[in-house]
Design goal:
Shape: elongated
Mean pLDDT: 86
Strand content: under 5%
Helix content: 55-70%
Length: about 250
């Protein structure tokens, strides 16, 4: 399934091959345009979306077993199985969303930027709505089902904003990814602290309702900049200036 050169791969579309051969240059020859990256609205929109989705992931994947054990009183054997459902659902949605996104792009039903925004909305805005609705449901098992569906749908973002950084600046994707990891780590640590302060030793359903409301707001607020400013078109600063090709490099 692997090939030495993109041109040897029969699955590469002509437009992809053109992108790889004309827009991607060896990183060892390129100075990083830090000022352009730091002031880029598309880059910041990806950073903020990454922050919000990471908060969402951390709460649901790490603390849903806590909800199962202390609020729903589920025994450890069933807890293990039920805790497996969210990531399993996410993997299924990730695959299906990827196939649909590729189909839409191949058929040219939407431009790439629109595809990324649509699938980001499916993976963030729809879960935000489901989390809000879940707070009105008194049955804990139905409440948990809404959490599972919400987390599963988050797999769509892997066909959304999470690939925009590759498309907007293929020469500097490592730099943008590193910045995204900083935001992701910050989100993860802040989430742990907030969860301890909000939940503590409580098993009260109302505390979990407050968490769902908070997550809904975070998802919508962090998604909005990407919907407004997200852009998968190659940015002007991705193309190196000829005179700068031999300058020192920061990788």
């Amino acid at each position: 399934m692997f090939y030495h050169q993109p041109s040897d791969d029969p699955g590469v579309r002509p437009s992809e091959l053109e992108l790889l051969t004309t827009s991607v240059h060896p990183k060892a020859q390129l100075p990083v345009p830090w000022a352009e990256i730091v002031t880029s609205l598309p880059v910041w929109s990806v950073m903020l979306a990454n922050f919000g989705s990471t908060v969402f992931y951390v709460v649901l994947i790490m603390y849903m077993p806590v909800y199962l054990k202390y609020t729903m009183k589920v025994d450890i054997a069933n807890n293990g199985f039920m805790s497996m459902l969210p990531p399993l659902g996410q993997m299924v949605v990730m695959y299906i969303a990827g196939r649909f996104a590729s189909l839409i792009q191949t058929k040219k039903w939407m431009d790439v930027s629109a595809i990324r925004k649509v699938f980001s909305c499916i993976g963030m805005a729809v879960p935000a709505v489901l989390l809000s609705v879940a707070t009105a449901i008194p049955n804990s098992y139905i409440f948990y089902s809404f959490l599972v569906v919400s987390y599963s749908l988050s797999g769509s973002v892997f066909s959304g904003f999470r690939v925009s950084q590759i498309e907007m600046a293929p020469n500097f994707v490592a730099v943008i990814t590193a910045l995204g990891d900083i935001f992701g780590s910050l989100a993860m640590n802040l989430t742990h602290i907030a969860f301890i302060l909000i939940i503590g030793d409580s098993s009260d359903q109302m505390a979990w309702n407050e968490i769902c409301w908070s997550l809904s707001v975070i998802l919508i607020v962090s998604l909005s900049p990407f919907v407004l400013f997200g852009n998968s078109k190659i940015q002007s600063w991705n193309t190196p200036i000829t005179s700068a090709m031999n300058e020192p490099v920061a990788i």
